[in-house]
Specification:
about 400 residues; alpha/beta; 5-stranded antiparallel β-sheet; 17 helices; globular
Length: about 400
């Protein structure tokens, strides 16, 4: 079986930025992650063993001098000590446990130091997705020339509508080549249409950003807040997370992902200080119009002009949905769009994967004899992740109400 992940930076930028923040703030934290397949996919017999082989192959993937030089140049906010850490980083397959039950469902768990295991999630999800299409033979019908053409047309539509957008599609891509093709197509489209209102600003994939001399984009994922919620409780998790982020990046990487435990508890923690510190917020669940209205109202309550703030929309968007949001959001904020699966897994007659790997337990030091469970409470009912009893307990703690 050919190796799927061949480059250390074939990963999302926010995994590296969070890794840096974790080492800086929680260097001894231990965590557990769990794989969730929302489609309840039945995988081919022996699939788990192939995943194990691919994870084992990660042990020979190390960062190169070229990758370090690119990150130094583009990721100016990363401290020098972090590049030293990355030079010495080595994956270890013993951090993972992969199995398949009698019905063919896939089970994946990670456990270990947070600073180590944090760099597994996106790579393993990309492995599962690409491997599935390889094993089932669906990849034989991938027409990459047509894919480039259709992607270029998506770019034209977004640019002409004034959308500022980026690729967020590594984790559920149909293949590495599919993401490579779409990044090249969007870059080419941007160069040809540079005088249009919109802008393709880059990709979350650090390696492809390097290959095409683009800006790697991204800030954080839910796991940063969810782990802190497990260690300290969900009531003040956002406050602690924002302070930790400030401590590490001093105002850089200033877009905050607010929906780990829903809007209401975040809003209680989002003071004028934080509202001025962060450049904006990311909407990753819920009804986009309703979420935007809450954001605008919050800024107004703090006497901040929402039109000066960036709002990134990333909730399973399509091209047409982004254009629709652009039409109304541009009146009240600076909208931009992070689009993933719709870009990197949009082949005819192929259903994209609907998989995630979520952090489910944490402890602040290895000396603790037990983990604290955690969860993610989304603005979408179907996106809550964690044990049902943990979700219920966290909801009670933060007086969660939907809407």
């Amino acid at each position: 079986m050919q190796q799927i992940i061949k480059h250390f930076t074939d990963d999302d930028l926010y995994k590296f930025s969070m890794c840096c923040a974790v080492i800086d703030n929680y260097p001894r934290a231990q965590v557990k992650y769990a794989f969730v397949d929302r489609n309840n996919t039945v995988y081919p017999e022996g699939f788990a063993e192939l995943v194990k082989e691919q994870i084992k192959m990660l042990e020979n993937v190390v960062i190169t001098d070229e990758e370090i030089a690119f990150m130094r140049r583009k990721c100016y906010y990363m401290p020098e000590w972090f590049f030293t850490y990355l030079r010495g980083f080595r994956y270890d397959s013993r951090w993972t446990h992969v199995s398949q039950d009698a019905e063919g469902h896939l089970h994946i768990e990670f456990e270990g130091a947070w600073s180590d295991t944090i760099l597994l999630e996106v790579k393993v999800l990309a492995i599962v997705s690409e491997l599935y299409y390889m094993v089932t033979g669906l990849n034989k019908d991938f027409d990459y020339d047509d894919y480039y053409k259709r992607t270029y047309e998506k770019g034209e539509k977004l640019l002409s509508a004034g959308c500022i957008y980026s690729d967020f599609g590594t984790r559920r891509r149909a293949s590495f080549k599919a993401e490579d093709v779409i990044v090249r197509a969007f870059r080419d489209c941007q160069q040809s249409c540079s005088d249009w209102k919109g802008r393709f600003v880059g990709t979350s994939n650090v390696y492809l950003a390097m290959k095409y001399d683009l800006t790697p984009v991204g800030t954080m994922a839910h796991e940063f807040i969810c782990a802190i919620g497990g260690m300290y409780g969900p009531q003040m998790a956002n406050n602690i997370a924002m302070n930790a982020w400030r401590h590490t990046f001093n105002g850089a990487l200033g877009t905050y992902l607010y929906d780990s435990f829903g809007w209401d508890i975040f809003a209680l923690n989002f003071s004028e200080d934080f509202a001025n510190l962060f450049k904006g917020l990311r909407v990753d669940s819920g009804d986009n119009r309703k979420e935007l209205a809450k954001i605008v109202a919050k800024y107004k309550s703090l006497n901040i002009d929402s039109r000066t703030k960036q709002v990134i929309f990333s909730n399973a968007l399509t091209t047409d949905e982004a254009i629709e949001i652009q039409e109304y959001a541009s009146k009240v904020v600076k909208p931009s769009f992070g689009i993933g699966t719709h870009f990197t897994n949009d082949f005819p007659h192929v259903a994209p994967m609907n998989t995630v790997i979520k952090l489910v337990a944490a402890k602040i030091t290895e000396s603790w004899p037990f983990y604290n469970d955690t969860c993610k409470i989304s603005e979408d009912d179907g996106k809550h992740t964690g044990k049902p009893e943990v979700i219920e307990r966290f909801m009670k703690a933060i007086h969660y109400t939907k809407g």
